[in-house]
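Subject: Interface between my chains keeps coming out wrong

I've been trying for a while to get a sensible model of this assembly. When I model each chain on its own everything looks fine, but I need the whole thing in one frame so I can look at the contacts. Pasting all components below, labels as-is. Any help appreciated, I'm running out of ideas.
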Amino acid sequence: MTLPKRSPCPVACTLDLIGDRWTLLIIRDMMFFNKQRFEEFLESPEGISTNILASRLKLLEELGLVEKQPYSNHARRMNYQLTDEGKSLRPVLKVMAVWGLKHVEGTQVPFFENPNSDVLDKK
Amino acid sequence: MTLPKRSPCPVACTLDLIGDRWTLLIIRDMMFFNKQRFEEFLESPEGISTNILASRLKLLEELGLVEKQPYSNHARRMNYQLTDEGKSLRPVLKVMAVWGLKHVEGTQVPFFENPNSDVLDKK
DNA sequence: GAGATAACTTGTAAAATGCAAGAAAAGATT
DNA sequence: AATCTTTTCTTGCATTTTACAAGTTATCTC
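Reply #2:
Try treating it as a single job with all components included. I did that and got this:
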């Protein structure tokens, strides 16, 4: 799947894919908190709404960053998981987390426990 | 200046500041292309419109990421420059550029000349 | 087949964006 | 001293995206 590009700039193109208020937070939830289900994403403190979440998950799937699979034995239950492509965003999340911790007052890490912990560093 | 936070998460907070379609592109123009003036930002290939540009520059100034100074001897001419705080976003821009170059087809580097060049690495 | 669970969809109001036009400040020109 | 030029920025309006609330649908359990 290809979204319309504003320019050939890799920064602009990356922003076209994930540069909004919500997408990277969904990826954060999968990457650092191992969330996999619709309802789990809804529980995050930022309070994404259901229509935005559904549309973002769909887009992420179309982009090949996320895979969706039915979860056996439960009512209509789905599993959302990062693909390798999606996992490759780890450095982006990490650098943003580190920047935020240093430059935005009031940021904390029950989220990321410790800025230098392996939550950010592993894999 | 402090924007309302959605959560104490450093990723969410960073997105609250610069997580939109335009802000990082303005910073890119200052950081990698040494643009400093309103009109120069307008020339970038993504085609930001004047009202959006004005509002983002104002916000960036209020956040302390950008400084605005009158340019002597020219009609109403202003200079916009990154503060140290603004310059600290270089790793964020860099990691997004590297990711884009690798994962988004059709991204190029007349923008960044060469993914491994000192345009990205210096300072 | 009634109930529970979980993933969505729909409707509508509010906000942000995009586009075009033009206003305003200040030096340069005549 | 009036007009021109350059440059930043504002305004108005159409379109798109977001936010919030409510409701619908699919599938398993009892």
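Reply #3:
Confirming on my end. The two ends of chain A are 27 Å apart (CA to CA).
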